[in-house]
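quick one
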Amino acid sequence: MQTPATDTRTHALSLTPSGLLTLLNDWGEPGFRARQMVEWIYSKRVFSVDAMSNLPAALRLRLSRELSWDLPQIISRLDSADGASKLLLSSERGLIESVILRYEGRTSLCVSSQVGCRLACSFCQTGRLGFVRHLSTAEILAQYAIAEQIVQTEGRRISHVVFMGMGEPLDNYDNAVGAVNRLTGKDAFGLSVRNVTLSTSGLAPQIRSLATDVRAALAVSLHAARDDLRTELMPINKRYPLAELKSALMHYQQVTGDKITIEYILIRDKNCSVREAKDLVRFLHGLRAKVNLIPFNSHPGMPYDRPSDEDIRTFQSYLAERSIPAPVRYSKGLEVSAACGQLAAKKLETLTSIPKRNDVLNRNLILS
Ligand code: SAH
Ligand code: SF4
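structure w/ iron/sulfur cluster:
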């Protein structure tokens, strides 16, 4: 979607609804024209200016000349039998991965906020890539626009967006927050604030800021509630240890009144014995939170495995006996490497190189 390097035009998706109103006002257009355009994009989810049939031809021409409307191309789509589609998208700035997850009665989109990630969690394929680049607000929203176009042909709408693709959204704070506010804004895409989830590995200062900057659901990837173990799994814990993370979450909860979701990957012989369950119960004390238990999704070369069903049940029962419901969530899309933590094209070069479009379409650019 991105404008070519030589193209300095603003992308239509980088303008807020009020930005569009101002722009058309500056062009001397009557207010109702701008409102029509906002309705095309944000209510009808139409992202092609040519299809905005009630706008005069001269205005459509000016819009297409002065703004960029390109969306990324889909250069690979892998569908799994359990209803996931892993998309590899190509913009002029490089490649982006997203995953559509179809459930009975709802359709989720897992968006990336960065290409790669610099937080280097030891269990995460994206973390192994290292950091490639931040995605812009328009690039995050373009993932939604493309997914919406795909699922509309199936009679679905994207009902949920989770920032659980590649990257740490709070490490790309302004762009991620900008995209969330556009997704949930009543004057914009208007998704329910409960249906848009920011997932973070625990950047404490940014969590505090989120309390007033954004209305969305917050998920925290905890995975261990003891500092030594968490630091081993998630190096960011050294910078923001558990006490600091908890204090930021308490602040967030005081300001927003919202429940927090704790994501907890279960890794065999690592973080799911009764000792770790006790640590988790202690950490949760005083927080209103629900816990999702996610059996580790393996990928080649990782020194970890998922625990036995019995170990999972024991961990879960320990929490349940202390009135902490903790459903086990199995990731969709394992067979096409679309599950949590599996996003990473086969080679880093795949994500850093800018593909020649026709080339890529003909090459079988299959993901890891
Ligand atoms: N950076 C953010 C969001 C992207 S990761 C975060 O860490 O929360 C999305 C989720 O996938 C996180 O909960 C992350 O811990 C989880 N994840 C990463 N690798 C995984 C794996 N191998 N198996 C299961 N979940 C994994
Ligand atoms: Fe980054 Fe999240 Fe993966 Fe950690 S789990 S490396 S924060 S994407």
